[in-house]
Automatic annotation (TrEMBL):
It holds the Pfam family BTB. Residues 28-102 form the BTB domain. It comes from Pocillopora meandrina. One of its GO terms (biological process) is neurogenesis. The chain crosses the membrane at residues 52-69. InterPro entries: BTB/POZ_dom, SKP1/BTB/POZ_sf. SUPFAM superfamilies: POZ domain. This is BTB domain-containing protein. GO terms for cellular component: cytosol. Keywords: Membrane, Transmembrane, Transmembrane helix.
Amino acid sequence: MAAEDNWQTKLQTIVERSAFIFNNEMLSDVKFVVPLSSAESKSTKAMPAHKFVLAFSSPVFFAMFYGQMAETKDCIELPDCDYDSLLELFRFLYSDEVTLSGSNVMQVMYYT
């Protein structure tokens, strides 16, 4: 579904609309740069995100983006995180869904 397909009206619930913009450059106003895996810290990937969605879902992100010492950078490096686990945390914050496995459950829980 492309941006010009009126996704705002075709997707009926706020959860569906939030899930649609998850990990999507559209409307994003921050990027998290994280290693692809904890063992492979030299290779990184940028994950687009939306400050409002993250702040709406998490008091930590609310303080990070809108608190007294709010982060002003639009590119935030998280060298101690791994991409796949952070992606699952963000999937949950955007859509109330998460895909956990034996390899990511501890990291996702730690990030929360």
